[in-house]
Amino acid sequence: MINVLFNICEHNSVDKNNILLYTRVKVRTPIISGGSIWYHIYRWMGVSTVIPFSIGDHFNQFTTDGGVTKACRSILYVLWYATKWEIWKERNNKLFNDKECSIVHVVDKVKSLTFMWLKAKFPSLPFNYHSWWLNFFTMLGIC
What 3-state DSSP class applies to 24? Predict the structure, then answer.
């Protein structure tokens, strides 16, 4: 059953690291992969890095790249979880509904979801939707 569920992936491994960081889902448009989505997220953040091989290492690296302030770390936690959530949803969308989104669309969904989660939790954060999409590190000035 597991092999049937993951037959859309180029890797036969059911390892969580492959699914959320490296799995490349076969689609007709540019290949959706955790790595390519993370590449675009890092580019949006203005960060150049190498993605570690394990989820735990990736989480530690990602949530400390923005600095050590508590506010910045909270924002990075939300961004990390939102990205993982959208990668997982995109995988399921392809697997169960045979639908696909472009990498840019998935990244846009991450940005939108992160903005909504942050504004719900911290309504006084000093940014608007447009500023968030441009580059949150530069605009926030708190990281």
Answer: strand
User: How far apart, in Å, are the Cα atoms of 38 and each of 46, 57, 124?
Assistant: 12, 14, 28
Report the number of distinct structural domains present in the chain: 1
Which amino acid would we find at residue 25? Answer: V
**What integer best gives the mean pLDDT of the chain?**
75
Rounded-to-integer distance, Cα 66 and Cα 45, Å: 9
* Helix/strand/coil percent split, the chain, to 5: 65, 5, 35
Two tokens, residue 139: 């605009």
Structural domain harbouring 72: 2-140
pLDDT at 76: 87
What DSSP string runs through 26-72?
Answer: --SSSPEEHHHHHHHHHHHHT------SSHHHHHHHHHHTT-S-HHH
Instruction: Indicate the DSSP class of residue 18.
Output: I
β-sheet bridge partners, residue 9: 25
